[in-house]
Amino acid sequence: MQVPFWDERIETASRGDLEALQLERLKKVVDSAFKTPFYKKRLAKAGMSSSDDIKSLEDLKKIPFTTKDDLRKSFPKGLLACDMDEVNRIHSSSGTTGIPTVIYFSGEDVDTWTDLVARCVVCTGASKKDVFQNMMTYGLFTGGLGLHYGAEKAGMTVIPVSSGNTLRQVQIMQDFQTSVVHATPSYMLHIRTVLDENDISLKQLNLQKAFIGAEPHSENVRKKIEELYNIDAYNSYGLSEMNGPGLAFECVHKAGMHFWEDGYIVEIVDPETDENLEDGEPGEVIVTNLIRHATPLMRYRTRDLASILPGQCECGRTHRRLSRIKGRTDDMLIINGVNVFPSQIEEVIMKIPEVGTNYQICLDKQGALDRLTVQVEIYSKMFTGSAGELENLRHRIVEKLKGTITIKPLVKLHEPGFLPVYEGKAKRVIDERPKDEQ
């Protein structure tokens, strides 16, 4: 298999060279951090007075963790490390769940981020021969613009269609013979349903690759997308606080996401003890951004749960690989005292061939106990059989879920189109229990 590179020298650098570069860049980021009101106070409290306190990468542990709440409390300029006339772009969260978080970029910050995203695109084998349809939301959200700039830099023909209006998306895919798309996994599954509803065959498209991300998803969802479209689907990882897409991406081997260690330092810690974990051990992903200076962020607690995959990828890249995101420390459900991650449920139901492309997890109270209901859309052909066949399927799903999460759920089967569709991030969990009992 041909292994394409964007910057082969840095992508295959030795561990020693990578760590030397990380140390050099970390010291510069610490210098930038001392220019912000937030870190000036936070680092002084930790006993640091300048980047001279960083003599090795081991000294990174001197720096306290930074949290999303720190970003909110620093709104709007507590983490700004330069004058506003040096700021080239601002991205921000919507603030729908509280005070927004804001990230400032200098022109150089945008350029270095774009270069890493171009590296992501190229490592999947995409090139200037591809037509790239970006179905992620543009605007303050970083998912749309981040991939847009990187794909352009990699030479692809970019269609900035943004999210929504599925029939128009499909028409554009036909008109311009789109070969690569960028979308959430749930939206990719929904588009396939729309193709079937409108009798549009895969032969009318030219789709070959999909970049999927922005929401946790199981390996079985990726496989389902690949099977439904007969394409390659590549996992991507990013978060707005760390620029957006481009932290880590799968290469042509699809064996874990390469974390670009010249741009970021990744740590995996036990979310309860904060102790650093070895490669292969799952824990919370902690990231230090080494390439952004307008808004420095060090040891940021992402709340995402994953592990570093041991060993080296066949592609020859030396940057370590991140496993798929298993969930978040704050999306774990406690159901009658049992810890359950939504990803565990998805992993089970997406293995069942009769299950379609949409599902929802609902929680409420039945008396004093929690009640878990899993609503599942199944393929239309299943409703042409006997009631007994449907009941057998429902029972099989219940037993498989019980075998994994140890809780016996209520399972409801529906025809396609019954459950709500999301054109951005899917809302898979509806928790109607009282807030103080969740």
Automatic annotation (TrEMBL):
Keyword Nucleotide-binding on entry: yes
GO molecular function, one term: nucleotide binding
Domain of life: Bacteria
EC number: 6.2.1.30
Enzyme class, UniProt record, top EC level: ligase
Limits of the AMP-dependent synthetase/ligase domain: 81-287
Keywords in alphabetical order: Ligase, Nucleotide-binding, Phosphopantetheine, Phosphoprotein
Reaction(s) catalysed by this chain's protein: 2-phenylacetate + ATP + CoA = phenylacetyl-CoA + AMP + diphosphate
Signal peptide positions on this chain: none
Pathway field: Aromatic compound metabolism; phenylacetate degradation
Domain named AMP-dependent ligase C-terminal: residues: 337-433
GO BP terms: phenylacetate catabolic process
Alphabetical list of Pfam families matching this protein: AMP-binding, AMP-binding_C_2
Job description of the protein: Catalyzes the activation of phenylacetic acid (PA) to phenylacetyl-CoA (PA-CoA).
Family as reported in the entry's similarity comment: Belongs to the phenylacetyl-CoA ligase family.
Subunit structure: Monomer.
Protein name, entry field: Phenylacetate-coenzyme A ligase
Organism field: Anaerohalosphaera lusitana
